[in-house]
Amino acid sequence: MVDWEGPLTEAYERATTYLAGLPERRVGPRADAAELRASLGGALPDGPTEPREVVARLAAGVEDGLLPSGSGRFFGFVFGGATPASLAADWLTTAWDQNAGLYAASPAAAVVEEITARWLNELFGLPLGTSVGFVTGAQMANFTGLAAARHEVLRRAGWDVERQGLIGAPRVRVLAGAERHDTVDRALRFLGFGTDCIEPIAVDGQGRMRPDALAAVLRDDNAMLPTIVCAQVGNVNTGAFDSVREVCGPAHERGAWVHVDGTFGLWAAVSERLEGLVDGIELADSWATDAHKWLNVPYDSGLVFCAHPEAHRAAMSVRAAYLIQDEDGERDPLDYNPEFSRRARGIPVYAAIRALGRSGIAEIVDRCHAMAIRFAAALRDGGADVLNDVVLNQVLVRFGDDDAITRQVVKDVQDEGTCWMSGTTWQGRAAMRISVTNWTTGPDDIDRSAATVLKIRDQLIRD
């Protein structure tokens, strides 16, 4: 008889101990790579090991090398945590071990995705019938949305890119803000366009694409090339939002496809207080975002949306004799994402939305916004330079108007362990980048973290 209870009980006990300790745990790894190799390494095992012992030794070996990104005082990158319902659903997803590529392979996973897709469209206010793909993250969401864009703009030019490829195809140009995220460039590389296809559009001091600059480029286009415009809602440094309404107007007049990179900023649509930031979002053609950011579901969980399902399916779907694809209209998930075999990512997203509801998701977004404002105010009152308008959840800070001091404060804060945030370069200057995205972050986390940052800054300047 297979012993499921032993290893799963060990995993449960280790996991709940870790999660319960997050509020007071040092926010940073406690071991370096050499220590982790010593703890986890050794010779290839000659024979089997009892499963519960494997789980216990694995947990003990990785414990000190974990970056506690689920902590309410973790402000690095733009990471979320995991809510209880979504984490529990993710465990079940693993236990059920469904291949969610086809309806035939898992009717339950396909229907959960279908329902969850409808809920997501309603949450974001996207057009009725918008198709949804559940992918790994914003990188693949941008890839998939831009693949649909590639299909459609070339189809309009009389070219079947899925059949004919790109050799000999009409040249496609991509207009994107100079402060776009690197996942857009990377997606264009994957799609065979290369980054030379990008024409950077001038941005303002907060990193927002200037609509007048975009309109001028579109107006002056004499070649009438197939065109994709990439807008951004939520600059990764400042949190700033392109004006999607002002982007879509001239772009659609020109016949361009508008793709929106809304990795975290798209979630502003759920908040009555912040929805003005995404005014006109429903006018775009495709959108990318992450569920493992503000919805706070476990990694990995990205989402792509397309207002033109036929273009979405044309770019992604595949047919093969051995596949059992549904003939009765049921949704085959592989028609909407780049993968065949994949885990049932829709299940944790379903659980998170079911547990929180619209009001619960909005509360997380609103609270993180309020906490970002609180963090910026505390640092500004303490003499730090806040470089951005805190419109959402991102705070850019500089110390002593000095690159070296700023970078050293970031490093020393990471080493100290009260909180963790990353550094960046903004408009040629070093900065500390603070991202408030975790569902558990509250005023005490902010005040404790701000006091630590200022204390480290003061000590560094004195020394």
Automatic annotation (TrEMBL):
<dbReference type="GO" id="GO:0004058">
    <property type="term" value="F:aromatic-L-amino-acid decarboxylase activity"/>
</dbReference>
<dbReference type="InterPro" id="IPR002129">
    <property type="entry name" value="PyrdxlP-dep_de-COase"/>
</dbReference>
<dbReference type="InterPro" id="IPR015421">
    <property type="entry name" value="PyrdxlP-dep_Trfase_major"/>
</dbReference>
<keyword id="KW-0456">Lyase</keyword>
<keyword id="KW-0210">Decarboxylase</keyword>
<dbReference type="InterPro" id="IPR015422">
    <property type="entry name" value="PyrdxlP-dep_Trfase_small"/>
</dbReference>
<feature type="modified residue" description="N6-(pyridoxal phosphate)lysine">
    <location>
        <position position="293"/>
    </location>
</feature>
<dbReference type="Pfam" id="PF00282">
    <property type="entry name" value="Pyridoxal_deC"/>
</dbReference>
<dbReference type="InterPro" id="IPR010977">
    <property type="entry name" value="Aromatic_deC"/>
</dbReference>
<dbReference type="GO" id="GO:0030170">
    <property type="term" value="F:pyridoxal phosphate binding"/>
</dbReference>
<dbReference type="InterPro" id="IPR015424">
    <property type="entry name" value="PyrdxlP-dep_Trfase"/>
</dbReference>
<keyword id="KW-0663">Pyridoxal phosphate</keyword>
<dbReference type="GO" id="GO:0019752">
    <property type="term" value="P:carboxylic acid metabolic process"/>
</dbReference>
<protein>
    <submittedName>
        <fullName>Glutamate/tyrosine decarboxylase-like PLP-dependent enzyme</fullName>
    </submittedName>
</protein>
<comment type="similarity">
    <text>Belongs to the group II decarboxylase family.</text>
</comment>
